[in-house]
Amino acid sequence: MLVGDWMISNPITVSSDFSILEAQRLLRTHGFRRLPVVDKGVLVGIVTDRDLKDAAPSKATSLSVFELNYLLSKLTIRDIMHTPVYTVSPDDPIEVAALMMEEHKISGLPVVEDGDIVGMITITDLLQAFISILSLREGGRLTVETPSPVAARPGS
Q: Which ranges in 1-156 belong to alpha helices (H)?
């Protein structure tokens, strides 16, 4: 199974000079958790809902609402986006995306083809692929026998 079969096509992107307040509104309106950052047609970063929450001031601040909104309106995506951005191709197997997400401890990857962002694939998409592969909704099950015990997961 390929990334292109499971990705979300034509993701909404923002530029690095986009305001944090506008990015928060965009995520809330569309119900997703990450925005690829594209400047002049080139993927330059990624910002997540967590990045936006972390950039927001503490509720314990002594600033007024007006002061807070003014300060936030001056903060742009460029100030908080993550770089470099890990990407996959729509022709990559979904296993490549899963391993990359696990290795880098991220929950979504932009899908890039010929330098253009054509999609996003997330942990949720990979979980849906896993459920489909195993026919879990139809009662499917997979049992794997290994020659030796599987090592415990880190942190177990």
A: 3-6, 20-30, 49-55, 65-74, 94-104, 123-133
